[in-house]
Each structure stands twice: as structure tokens, then as C-alpha cells.
Specification:
- This protein is of the alpha+beta class.
- It is built from four helices and seven strands; from the N terminus they run ααββββαββαβ.
- The protein folds into two domains: 75 residues; 117 residues, Pnp Oxidase, Chain A.
- Strands 2-1-5-6-7-4-3 form a seven-stranded antiparallel beta sheet, with helices on both faces.
- A hairpin with a 2-residue loop joins strand 3 and strand 4.
- It is globular.
- The N terminus is likely disordered.
């Protein structure tokens, strides 16, 4: 009888231990599955939000680039010389003139010169043979910046005035002859450029 009781007790303990082991294993499996699912969902959520964030960043960058590219056209800080005022300033030698051209190898060239006024739509340069002259005769175009500095101005916007000017080589023989006849400073050796457009500075 005693042996039977011990055997029954032993069987009960084994049964309970097995049951507990199965329960723990099931719980562990469930927990592992839940954690894996949560991790997958989080990864999917991050992956879904990444393109949106990337798109927003790209959009902001594009806006910044656009703003930088159009700033000079919208501030108008130094755009107080129209074509007539520009020609008057050139005639009075008020400012500093830079002429930008493209070399034969595609590299940029810029140099300081003193322009003259041929008429209300042309300027001219009496250049010696140099890179700028060669570039203009070859490419037929140039960009000129004209700046009048006033370091004594109280406000920043008043310290500079001027314009950026698109220029085109004048090749019309009749126009050139008329300009030479009307202005003794314009000769056959002069390089005459037509003002195509006056643009903002700054």
C-alpha cells in the first residue's frame, strides 16, 4: 500500500512538471512570435515612412535651391540703374566695369576695362589684342557688370548701384558706319557691342 502511494505521488509530480514545461514553452513561443511580429510591423512602418521623409527633404532642398537661384531677381537691392542711367554713368566714368567672356577651351575669362558710350543702345571698347577681344569676336557675346561703389552710404543698399548687362557683337556694317560718323571715339578698330538686356545686381 505504501509503495502504491509513493508511485502515485511520483506520477502526479511528473505529470505536473510536464504540464508546466509545456505551458512555459508555449508561452515562450507566443512571446517570441509576438516580438517578431511587432519588430516586423515596426520595420514596415519605418520603411513606409522613409520614402515620405526622403521626399519631404528633397522638396525642401528644391525650394531652397529655387529661392537661392531667384534671390537676385527678387531682392532688387542694387537694381537702381536702368539702361539710360547706366549709359550716363559709363559716360561719366563713375563705376568699375568687368567683362566676362568664354575662352576657346570653354573656360571663363573676366577682365576690367573702361567702356565708352556709342549711342543709346551700344557701348564700345578700343581693345588691344587680348583674350577678351578674341573671345568676343569668336563667340559674338559677352556679359558686363558695372558697379558704382559708395562706401560712405549709411545704409547697405546704398553702398552699391549698377547692373549686369548682356552684350552682343554689332556686325551690321551700316550701323557701325553710322556710329563711327556720329562719335569720333568710335573707329574701325573699336569693338562695338549692342545692349541686349540690363539685369539686376545682387
Amino acid at each position: 500500500m505504501k509503495k502504491l502511494a509513493i508511485a502515485l505521488l511520483t506520477l502526479t509530480l511528473v505529470f505536473n512538471l510536464c504540464a508546466c514545461g509545456q505551458s512555459s514553452s508555449s508561452a515562450a513561443t507566443t512571446a517570441s512570435t509576438s516580438a517578431s511580429t511587432a519588430s516586423s510591423e515596426a520595420a514596415s512602418s519605418e520603411a513606409a515612412s522613409a520614402p515620405a521623409a526622403s521626399s519631404e527633404a528633397a522638396s525642401e532642398t528644391a525650394v531652397s535651391a529655387d529661392a537661392a537661384a531667384t534671390a537676385s531677381a527678387t531682392t532688387g537691392l542694387y537694381t537702381n540703374l536702368d539702361q539710360a542711367a547706366l549709359l550716363e554713368a559709363i559716360g561719366q566714368f563713375k563705376g568699375l566695369c568687368n567683362v566676362s567672356t568664354v575662352n576657346a577651351d570653354g573656360t571663363p575669362n573676366i577682365a576690367i576695362f573702361v567702356p565708352g558710350v556709342a549711342d543709346d543702345s551700344h557701348i564700345f571698347f578700343n581693345w588691344a589684342d587680348n583674350a577678351t577681344k578674341a573671345n568676343v569676336l569668336r563667340e559674338k557675346t559677352a556679359i558686363m557688370s558695372y558697379d558704382i561703389a559708395d562706401p560712405t552710404a549709411e545704409e547697405k543698399a546704398g553702398r552699391h548701384s549698377g547692373a549686369v548687362v548682356k552684350l552682343e557683337l554689332e556686325e551690321d556694317a551700316e550701323v557701325l558706319a553710322q556710329l563711327q560718323e556720329a562719335n569720333e571715339s568710335v573707329s574701325e578698330a573699336s569693338v562695338v557691342l549692342k545692349i541686349v538686356e540690363v539685369l539686376p545686381v545682387g
